[in-house]
């Protein structure tokens, strides 16, 4: 039984893998370890021509690359299972199913979306090692996908010939309650991770996102944000080890990779540095009983005053309490208004929660009947929008109920927005149309961890993070243009209220609007890199230069090496 879903009011925290595309193929050809420079250049030129030619030519290119790739994989990986069982070309009857199974944004699942020439689905670690070496041999860009939740699709699209290294088969989870740790392979979903922890212990959990189909690899490497961050910080704050395949095909653990690289893949995005195989995480304690609530108010129900007061306490209240605010334009009695939804997880019982709220946020007027006590695993299902009473087995379902067209953006707020400012925001949101906002509180443990301890920099000084969110179901370019314009307008209007110099962004809320690179120069990279990583960007560049000086692992927003 997978269980029914409540109508979604929550916006999933999706941390997606961020992988690898573009640059000039002839530049990469000089680094090929097999085949001469001339022959690689010729193959690259042919691939590029066929990639943008007719579909029949594309299939021919796919078949040719498939044959070459199969031969290479067979010579670089274990003979069992055979390489042919893990590689799909465009002629394969399962190609489309495999490709589309982990596309979580319909904007990147249209007839005009560039498709990979082949998809490689490793079953064992040696397949990953071989795929890296063979990518060099055939001169193709490699995209890395663990769950497909990269908001702007960088894990499975590119403008040049590419293949996808799809890690969904590498999803083993080994929970050790004795030392309160677990090894989690990159292709495992957060739902699977939560379920496997729950199988072994009802008093342990892990601080990560609410979207149960999100892949662990990208989510954790980008930071890993969830409802327990005020108590325990991010996912990366509970990492003790990792396994990564580097540009030379070596499998490295924390000791072998060194502390600089281990620092970088905790919030810097793994795909700039290698292929993350697995993380070793530290489990955290959760009480036998937790409490959730959802309280909704519209503007004529004093929502403005409540949101303003929330800003004053959200990052200072008890660390066991996380209160998210969803702000959505809605129609009530034929009038457009803003609905504010206060949605909470409290690591304790309802009686203590009511005491905390009465003391620190009495304006919300929380009552006992608003609160629901449950186990931690039940709260995971609640936050994933499942109906109350749904079996935890639902967390093992890797398929999303529905996939929308969507766009996300992010910001950080360091000074409370005034009531006048909020009222101006409401008018703009109603005027724009559909785009909503999600306010996610910081403080607590987040303020205690130095901004330089991991590559993720957004710590003390941030009251809350904003996620801009718009979904739509209408197909076509006009709808895409309309909704993309809406969210960009609201992002622009919010400029006076958010962090500055630079305006911060969250890597796991991938947003190519804030800058992309075509040359992987330091200056181009810093445009988006300073927003994602603040003062940590320069150290990330130094790590990148040390571990991948030829820039094999790259994408439109990857860390550039120093030339």
TrEMBL record:
Keyword Acyltransferase: no
Keywords: FAD, Flavoprotein, Glycoprotein, Signal
Any coiled-coil regions, as ranges: none
Signal peptide: none
Cofactor names: FAD
Gene3D superfamilies given in the database record: 3.30.465.10, 3.40.462.20, Uridine Diphospho-n-acetylenolpyruvylglucosamine Reductase, domain 2 (3.30.43.10)
PROSITE patterns: FAD_PCMH (PS51387)
Domain FAD-binding PCMH-type residues, every copy: 112-286
Keyword Nucleus appears in the UniProt entry: no
Protein family according to the UniProt entry: Belongs to the oxygen-dependent FAD-linked oxidoreductase family.
The protein's name: FAD-binding PCMH-type domain-containing protein
Annotated source species: Vitis vinifera
Highest classification ranks of the organism: Eukaryota, Viridiplantae, Streptophyta, Embryophyta, Tracheophyta
